[in-house]
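Ex. 9. Protein: PD-(D/E)XK nuclease superfamily protein.
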Amino acid sequence: MTTSIFDRIYSYRQRENKDSNENFIIEIFAFCLQEDKSFFTNFLILLGINHEDDYCVKTQPIYNYGRPDIEIVLNQSNTIILIECKIEHLERPNQLNDYRNILVEKVAFKKHLVYLTKYYDCKEIEETRIKFQQIKWADVFDIIGGSEQQITRQLQQYLKEKDMADSKNFHYQDLVNLSSIASTIKKMDEVLDGIKNIFEKNIGKFSKDSSRSTRLAEKRYNNYCSILKDGIQTYSIEAGFYWWQEEVELAVRIYIPKTERNKQATAINNFFKKKLKTWYFEDMGHGYNYWHYKEVAKFIIDEEEQITEMVEFLRRGIDRLKLIGPP
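Predicted structure tokens for PD-(D/E)XK nuclease superfamily protein:
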């Protein structure tokens, strides 16, 4: 029996002010592909694949190399399609290559890897046995067309409401924002530079300064340190600015990926859950998050020396991690 859409999205319900929008839309999109035959056919046409009636759609299947957002299996032609969906965020390091490795190990006649994004994000995958395709949510919006399924029409409306129906064009506000972006980045740089020494002394090597700007499309501006064991990321510690919600937040964040290869995920999560009881915790499905955060607006309202106080706030989070030590 097909799991209802309500069960699918319940586990991603919004927790306090943390957003689960990306997980919501993935589950709804996958549900529409499974249940709306006309929409599914149009999606296959978009990918240049012949229609089949015998197929299965899954979300976040677990493999050694990670958990792709959507997996489609076409049984008649022995075809597998992995889809990585992004809204504001970009891929994590080596994410698409990890999914390529999943497909390499799969026994299938045809293999497709699809990167579905809101904005243009050029990628290349070097694997002749896998067809790699990049599409945008605006393409999904266009193919819904005259679907008779109410939920698919609602998906189309939702894409429009979230400005994902036509992200190709400039808006006047985009041009207005360019005038202030340089000064804003300099202020954020001053905050992050202010904690670099203490971060490297107590946590580990700060990521390159150039890595900050690469995350702007993910609605964050930060530095990070990845903790590896046998070449596998067990967790990472970040510090910086996040605007994943309506409010811009300043935060120290711990992220623990729940991949099959990360055998330490549960133990690391239990350690931080015990030691960081005052930090905000969330289970995002693909990983665990711990947040020491404060809205930037509160610094603007309450503090005269905003940058000094922001540095001090992040320092307190780093000091807490130094005190408890690594897991």
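Check your answer against this statement. The chain has two domains: 5-161, 174-324.
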